[in-house]
Design brief:
The protein is α+β, with helices and mostly antiparallel strands. The protein is built from 13 helices and 12 strands.
Length: about 400
Amino acid sequence: MEIKQSFFLALKSLATSKMRALLTMLGIIIGVAAVIVIISLGDGMQKLMSDSFEQLGANLIQVNVWSSGSSRDVKDKDMYALVEEYPQYLSAVSPSVTVSAVSARGTGDVFTPSSVVGVSEAYCDIRALTLDQGRFLQYVDVLRSQNVCVIGSYINKEYFDGQGLGKTLTLNGYNYTIVGVLSETAESRQGSGDDQVIIPYTNAQQLNSAAAENSSVYMGGMSMYMFSGTSKDTASAARGIIESALFKIYEDDDYYMVVTSAEMLDMMNTMMNTMMVVLVAIAGISLLVGGIGIMNIMLVSVSERTREIGIRKSLGAKRKDIRGQFIIEAGTTSAIGGIIGIVLGILLAKGAGVLIDGTMSSGSNAEFTAVISLTAIAVAFGVSVGVGILFGYLPANKAAKLNPIDALRYE
C-alpha cells in the first residue's frame, strides 16, 4: 500500500471518531504547546536582559565591597585613584549608595520612590542617562553635599504635574531642590527606572547614617562602585586592575566582588538556560503521556479492526504493509496533535508576552516580547511525530503478526 493511501486512510479513521482522536492527541497538544510557550518566553527574557545590559553599556564594571570592620576598608578616594592611575583602562567611577527607608513629599502626598540612590557626577555618563529637563549632578554638588536631586519622569508627572524642575522634594525630612528630570525610559511606570531619585552620594551617606542612628531599618556593611572601562576590549584588564587593588587592601578576596556587564549577562543567561532545560523536561512529560495515550488507542484500534486486517492479509497484504499502515496512522495522529499544539503554543506565548510586558517594571526602555523560535517549533513538531511513531510501533507490529485465519474468525 502506498504511503499516500495509508495517510488518507489514517485521516478517514480519525474523522470517524473525532472525540476519541482529540482525547488521544491531548497529551501531545499540551506537551508541544508547553514547550513552545516555555522556550518562547525564555528566549524573550534573554533578549530583554541582553537589551537591558546593552543599554547599561558593554564597558560597565560593578564592584561590591563588604566591610571588614577594620581600618583597612576601602575608601572612595582609593577607587578614584585607580581611574587616575590607569586612564588607559578606566575612564570613570561613581560610588553608588542606596538610601534606605525613604519617605518623600512633592507638591502632594507623601510617597515612597522605588529607588533613591546617591552617586557622583560621572554616573550620568557611566549609565548613559539622558535628561529631559535641567542638568545632572555636578562635582561641586558632591563636594559640598548640596541638597540637590535629579528625578525620574514618573515622579515628575505623578507628583509635580510635569513641572518639577526647580521645585522642592523632601526626603526623610530634608528639602532637596530638583535640578534635573531624566528622560522617560520605561513608559513612566511606578517601580521602574522612571520612579527614582538621584542625589549626591555624600548626601546619601549622611541620610543612611541618620537612619542607622534613629532606627533599626538601615543595614550597612556593603559599598558599591560603578566603573566605566575605556572600551569593551579592555574590560577584562580593568577588572583585573580593580581586583588587584582590592586584594592589596584586604588580602582576602571574600570581601569584594568585581563583575563586568558581559559577565553579569553570561551569568543570567546560564541561569535562564538551566531553568528552561528543567521546565522543558517537565513539559516533555506531557509528550510521554501523549505517546502512551496513542499506543493505548492504537492497541484498541488493532482489536477493533482485527477482521479487517485478516481480510487484507488474505488478499495478499504483507506484514510490512499492515505495520506501515498503523505506524502512519499513529504518526498522523501525533502530527496533527503537534500542529494544533504549535498553534496553541504560539497564541499562548504571544498573549503571555503581552501580559508580562504590561505588568513587569523595567529599569530601561527595553520591552518584553515572546520570541517565537522556528527551531523550537521544528524540534517540538519532530518530537511529537517521533513520539507517535515510537509508541505506535508496538500496536503496528502486533497487527502485522496477526494470523490471517485467526483474524478472519475474530468477532
